[in-house]
Design a protein that fits this description.
Elements lengths: L6 H4 L2 H32 L4 H4 L7 H5 L4 H8 L3 E2 L3 H22 L4 H29 L5 H30 L1 H15 L1 H4 L9 E2 L6 H5 L2 H18 L5 H7 L4 H30 L1 H25 L4 H30 L5 H54 L2 H5 L7
Antiparallel strand pairs: 1-2
Pfam families: MFS_1
InterPro entries: AmpG_permease/AT-1 (IPR004752), MFS (IPR011701), MFS_trans_sf (IPR036259)
GO molecular function, one term: transmembrane transporter activity
């Protein structure tokens, strides 16, 4: 048996939740600013939808991070030595904050330097995420994986409330640069609890296992999990890629969209995550994932109807937007990400979990770029209609794949 560090097992799950959760919130501040806040700002300035769709190229590092995840894991978990998660998180957080400061200085015009800077920030953030996920899976015992899952999903909605909500309000009131500088400060501060928390107390360990992609892909749980992730993300995310521009075109101002994003993430998203967690325990992940897809189908059809009619009350449009982007998304993704944790091998959790997230990011990026092209050329009604059809078709596929969830579990590696 390898020599293992006993200290992580003695760390309170609540402490891990707070420290790791800070990193997840920081990542989602950047993600919310990029994927939800920036498209709304650009549309408010009159940019065409196909150019706004290019923002989804910033997802590229998240889609490809599986390529360098084994090297990150080997650095983080040396054959002999201390766990280096803290070093990766501290350096990465500082670089991300510096990158945001840079785009705050350069401004939005021209757009390409901003996109390049955000892609570099995403490269660093995705690398930190490999270490963060690995640390959470290996430190928390299986019965406490719910803490890590809550930190991920809850942190993503809290961070989105700041990055897509507060950020837009600040842009509307004070302009681009002060808003981005504020986000840079938030990202830096959120990384401090992990940098000075339990990750500093790791002992010297000997680790005979070498993390690798080949090891991960040999496991049936990982292979089928990648298919589940790709189908589910296409169903849930493709139809929401142009939600921010749609709301701007429907007549909402940046501050209103910002409040919508913030309220949705803080209240409805967290409520959806808690409901999803309880529903998974009561009814199983399969039913929760399928239900979430069917609910999202109805929401997308509603958006298409709003655009076609053009006369729906704004309150109704806002209500559906909040339920769709926060409530329904959280309901399903809390189930999906709990499965990701269960399917990951603790000896190389950063690699396995990263593969699932890369499937998520790759599908999101393809859908986001394609969404802008479709919406610009055929209009929002056709765009939401196509997305609803894809979403509806995914429901039986997910249900049938997840019926073999018990079989997936047998592909997991047991470590006593």
């Amino acid at each position: 048996m390898p020599a293992r560090d006993a200290s992580p097992a003695r760390v309170s799950p609540a402490v891990v939740f707070v420290t790791v959760g800070g990193l997840y919130v920081a990542q989602s501040v950047i993600g919310g600013l990029t994927m939800l806040g920036l498209p709304a700002v650009l549309r408010n300035q009159g940019l065409p939808l196909d150019q706004i769709g290019l923002v989804y190229l910033t997802v590229l590092p998240w889609a490809l991070k599986f390529l360098w995840s084994p090297y990150v894991e080997r650095f983080r978990l040396p054959r002999v030595g201390r766990n280096r998660s803290r070093v990766i998180a501290a350096v990465g957080g500082s670089l991300c904050a510096a990158g945001l400061v840079a785009i705050g200085i350069t401004g939005l015009s021209p757009l390409m330097p901003v996109l390049v800077a955000l892609i570099l920030v995403a490269l660093v953030t995705s690398t930190v995420d490999i270490a963060c996920d690995g640390y959470a899976v290996e430190t928390l015992s299986k019965e406490h994986h719910g803490w890590g899952n809550t930190a991920q999903v809850g942190g993503s909605y809290l961070g989105s409330a700041v990055g897509a909500g507060l950020f837009l309000v600040l842009v509307d009131r004070y302009g681009w640069s002060p808003a981005v500088f504020s986000m840079a400060a938030v990202v830096f501060l959120l990384g401090l609890p992990f940098a000075f928390g339990p990750a500093t107390r790791g002992a010297v360990e000997t680790r005979p296992h070498t993390p690798s992609l080949v090891t991960a892909l040999k496991r049936p749980a990982v292979r089928k999990g990648l298919v589940v992730a790709a189908i589910y993300v296409a169903a849930q995310k493709w139809g929401l890629s142009m939600l921010g521009p749609f709301l701007i075109d429907y007549g909402l101002d940046l501050a209103t969209v910002g409040v919508l994003n913030g309220f949705g993430s803080m209240v409805v998203g967290l409520a959806g995550a808690l409901t999803g967690g309880a529903a998974v325990r009561l009814f199983g992940a399969n039913l929760v994932l399928t239900l979430a897809i069917l609910l999202q189908t109805a929401m997308l059809l509603a958006f298409g109807f709003f655009d076609f009619g053009g006369s729906a009350p704004r309150a109704m449009v806002i209500g559906v937007a909040i339920l769709s982007s926060s409530g329904v998304m959280a309901l399903g993704f809390v189930a999906l990400y709990s499965q990701f944790m269960g399917w990951s091998d603790p000896r190389q959790a950063g690699v396995d979990f990263t593969l699932f997230q890369c499937a998520d990011s790759l599908v999101s990026m393809v859908g986001g770029v394609g969404a802008g092209w479709i919406a610009e050329r055929f209009g929002y009604t056709a765009y939401f209609g196509i997305a609803a059809a894809i979403c509806f078709a995914a429901a039986p596929a997910i249900y049938l794949l997840m019926r073999g969830r018990a079989g997936l579990a047998t592909g997991a590696v047991s470590h006593g």
